[in-house]
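Lay summary

Proteins are chains of building blocks that fold into shapes. Our project writes down both the chain and a compact code for its shape. Here are two examples, one after the other.
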Amino acid sequence: MAQQIRHAPATAAEVQSIVADAAARQRGLEVRGGGSKRPLRPPVAADALLDMSALSGITDYDPDELVVTARSGTPLVEIEAALAERRQMLAFEPFDHGPMFGAEAGRATLGGIVAANVSGSRRVSMGAARDHILGFTAVSGRAETLKGGGAVVKNVTGFDLPKLMAGSWGTLAVLLSLTMRVLPRPRSETTILFKELPDEAANHLMSAAMALPAAVSAAAHVPLPRAVTALRLEGFAPSVEARSRELMRALEPMGSGTAIEADESRAFWHGVRSLDALPRDGHVLWRISVPPARGWRVQTLLDWAGARYVYDWAGGLVWAAVPEDAAPVPTKHIHAGHVHAEHVRAERVRAAARSLGGHAALIRAPAAMREALNQADRAALLGAADAHSGLRALHARLKAAFDPCGILNPGLDLAAEL
């Protein structure tokens, strides 16, 4: 295979020129920022790498208007540091995936965060990354400059293109800059811990807490090594203290809670985001999204797997670390060597998610296993009756409108997850 050409544009004009040339030659471009989330997706079959990391820097920040604009290659840590100086934050709590794959922290960029729609534990109360994008500029696969939204919160004229960019993984357009809404950083935070609750009871407790007027900002359950269910409250200290007391009183029939203060609370939630409780070596990591009240049922449907779990988003996000040599698969599922055990295991994980009204995405696996699963997925997609053909047809139309030659991140089939 020929060595991949690397482009490192430093201006919007250079990006447009590179994309125009690639479109004219019909050569694929792998769009990448810091590369911290690259292992989350199958390899891109592209002739050249479009490295956006040089297109960096905060171009406008108005703390009074709660708006920040930055180029897409700006490191997340740089933006967070600038906001922290004014006691502000990106409220959807984005995080760096790099350490999940053994890479150094600090490589995540704003463009990558938005392209992957990354949202942390506060997603359950403040929404996802897509809910905090006010505007953007980008270059489409046609080499046309796109602009959407603006620099004010109340801007809903025309199509909501900023939301379309979130989660598109660079398959529709190359992001150049983004304008984000920011919010004041909470003055105080407290996390209430409930110990030794089974998964089902913990899920019911989180659902009950989210339904109460306590303004819980995050809810998570970590079953092992010792089961802990956590509810976070944020705001002004007197309000947090009063809401904590009322919340513990209301939930007392379901369990006895203990409050931990700011430093310990921040450390706990950092551990939830970085999945400290889950094993890495010898395990395949799945990200399973289901309706929050059904999160606990993932464990019951995957009882064959001997997996370890972390439940975030009040049960709506389940991280599952499944042993690579999970429970034996019945031989009747393996046909003439065409379907291997890992294929059947993967389908059982995905089927469990679908049965609960959600979906599962493979996050971390050995390279050979990931490639084998990707090939099986492509074959199944081509040969199976498609229950979501309408959604996939819509996705195909969007791709044709923004990138008709298919040059942007070719090989990333987002429709396969629908």
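And here is the second example, written the same way.
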Amino acid sequence: MNKSLKFRSNLIEAIESGESNITWRLFDDKDISVGDVIDLINRDTDAKFGEATVVEVREKSSPR
């Protein structure tokens, strides 16, 4: 079973066209790693609209 990420409907077209290929996530509780295959889910309908393979993960700390 793949891990999944949810996206709002207004972002799906940009993701499908390749215009958007980066996502920011706060509090990654899914332990996403390079090489993971991720199901892309429409947050509004819970329908899967695609899959993606993670090619890079960056962690950033919050400024204090």
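What can we say about the second shape? The mean pLDDT is 92.
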